[in-house]
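Supplementary notes for students who missed Thursday's class. We covered one full example, reproduced here. Read the sequence, then the structure, then the short commentary at the end.
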Amino acid sequence: MLNSKSMKLAGAFKTISFMPVLCSVVVAGIVFRMMFSELPGALMNQALTLFGGQPIAWLKYNRWTAMFAMVLLCCWRWTGMNILYYMAGLKSIPAELYEAAEIDGANHFQQLRNVVLPLAGPILGTVGVMQFISSWNDFVLPLIVMRDHARLPVMVQLLRMAGEYIKLWGPLMAGYAIASIPIIILFVFSMKLFIKGLTEGAVKG
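Structure (token representation):
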């Protein structure tokens, strides 16, 4: 829709969606920490009270409320960037393919399933891998937002393991190795996704 020439205010929507990326990480973390504060006047507690609930300490209540806060923050910050990546990938799909599918009687949903998704496989996989690696390696935002040290993510916990004066090199190196395993596994499977997307989306001449 955003790539369509008939779409009004597409440029304004792209600009607005990209603005969170330009926002300072520290400022975004402090604002979201205030939004999810345990105080009754915090924004999320006011919304909870509006629906008949009681104020809670979102960042300390349990792991699900803390995870919800971090997921919401990451979605707000990186959705605009991911949209631009997706749009750039979709623009590379030749318009003739849409026209050929329309001539064959395909509706918009069928064009999305049979034309767009196979050809967009590489960009979908690339953005997914980049987003996972960015979230997995995120350090500053959890350090600012999270209030309970027991629920800090892996990268922050690794820093806390590396004490200022005493370093337990054995457990520390083991933690570094374990923290690398998910990225290695994801990279192996994402390469298969790249190849599958390229071969299935290839236009045979």
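Commentary. Confidence is low (pLDDT under 50) at residues 200-205. The radius of gyration is 22 Å. If anything here is unclear, bring it to office hours.
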